[in-house]
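User: Hi! I have a protein structure encoded as tokens and I'd like to know what sequence might fold into it. I'm fairly new to this, so please keep things simple.
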């Protein structure tokens, strides 16, 4: 059985915008053991989402070698996380997928904005990642759990 992992950042909005990618990955790899590496214990966006076989807490010391494939959704921030996941050979990410098409001279120089300066929305960039892993399905709307807003207050 293949093992597949993806990432859920502490930023709730980035996680919400990655939910179509998570669903596309599940559809593309229905028989894989699918793990989400979450920066938040009991991540409120993932609660009730029902796509993953397991949720593991993520930090920069997390051993990523057990996964056959890692797919890093587009993140607005955390360069340390991106570097950690990018250190693996078996990663599909916007940084790798779009590296040759960076839009500005300064970005070509440093690469630190590879997921920001493509004049595309995060959802579009994540769709590009899902196409890269073989997804041929229609676009999927982001999932946003509804309910008691007080549960989200603790993540301010």
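Assistant: Happy to help. Inverse folding works backwards from shape to sequence: for each of the 156 positions I chose a residue that suits the local structure. Here it is:
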């Amino acid at each position: 059985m293949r093992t597949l992992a993806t990432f859920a950042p502490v930023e709730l909005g980035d996680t919400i915008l990655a939910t179509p990618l998570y669903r596309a990955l599940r559809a593309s790899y229905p028989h894989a053991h699918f793990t989400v590496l979450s920066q938040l214990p009991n991540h409120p966006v993932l609660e009730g989402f029902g796509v993953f076989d397991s949720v593991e807490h993520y930090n920069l010391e997390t051993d990523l070698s057990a996964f056959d494939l890692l797919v890093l959704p587009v993140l607005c921030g955390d360069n340390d996380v991106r570097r950690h996941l990018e250190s693996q050979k078996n990663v599909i990410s916007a940084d790798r997928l779009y590296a040759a098409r960076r839009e500005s001279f300064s970005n070509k120089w440093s690469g630190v904005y590879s997921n920001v300066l493509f004049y595309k929305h995060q959802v579009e960039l994540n769709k590009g990642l899902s196409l890269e892993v073989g997804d041929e399905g229609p676009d999927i709307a982001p999932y946003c759990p509804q309910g008691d807003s007080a549960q989200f207050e603790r993540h301010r």
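A useful reference point when you look it over: The mean pLDDT is 82. Feel free to ask if any position seems puzzling.
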